[in-house]
Specification:
Number of helices: 6
Largest sheet: 7 strands, mixed
Strand content: 25-35%
Number of domains: 1
Helix content: 25-40%
Radius of gyration: 16 Å
Number of strands: 7
CATH topology: Aminopeptidase
Structural class: alpha+beta
CATH architecture: 3-Layer(aba) Sandwich
CATH class: Alpha Beta
Length: 186
């Protein structure tokens, strides 16, 4: 398990667990509601049903490390799930680790929480000797796409539309990050 340090006096990061289930569900709904008007009513209802279902988060907690950002009041204001290799899906190869549900409370957007959660997932994956990290995101998540590309994720391919919108599969070669040369100052 990874130790996550306090990053400032307003927010801190830690590993989440099953005790956080209700707060994770609440954050999922709060965070993803921003896309309601981008989707048809039918597709929003499908997404909401998944976000509101505790099983969605239980399944993720069962097979991933959950990273959480909390404010000083103990409110969960950000989350991300890092799934290790060996958990393939119709999207993800069995040799890849992948990130799911990077979510930030809309009241805390623009504070670098999504980026910090993603970078902490990368750090954990590197410590676990993962080689390739993947994620998928859509055309309506412009901020997320910009963030992932800034970090170094590259579009591998367009995947089947979900909820009536275009999606892409992104990957990041962790080996390249691990092998960046260090500067010798001697």
């Amino acid at each position: 398990m990874c130790k996550l340090k306090k990053t400032n006096n307003r927010m801190h990061y830690r590993i989440g667990n099953y005790k956080d289930l209700e707060k994770l569900r609440e954050l999922g709904i709060k965070s993803w509601s921003q896309y309601r008007n981008e989707l048809t009513n039918e597709n929003w209802n499908k997404l909401f049903e998944s976000l509101n279902n505790s099983e969605t988060y239980i399944e993720l907690l069962d097979k991933s490390e959950c990273l959480i950002c909390e404010n000083d009041n103990g409110e969960i204001i950000g989350m991300a799930f890092l799934v290790s290799k060996g958990n393939p899906t119709e999207i993800y190869d069995e040799k890849w680790c992948y990130i799911r549900f990077v979510s930030v409370n809309p009241n805390y957007r623009g504070k670098g929480i999504g980026e910090e959660l993603t970078r902490k997932c990368i750090e954990i994956a590197q410590k676990n000797n993962e080689q390739i990290m993947a994620l998928h995101t859509s055309e309506i998540m412009k901020g997320a796409r910009h963030l992932y590309e800034k970090i170094g994720f590259k579009i591998l391919k367009e995947i089947e539309p979900r909820l009536g919108v275009k999606y892409w599969l992104y990957t990041l070669e962790l080996k390249e990050i691990n092998e960046k040369p260090t500067h010798n100052t001697s």
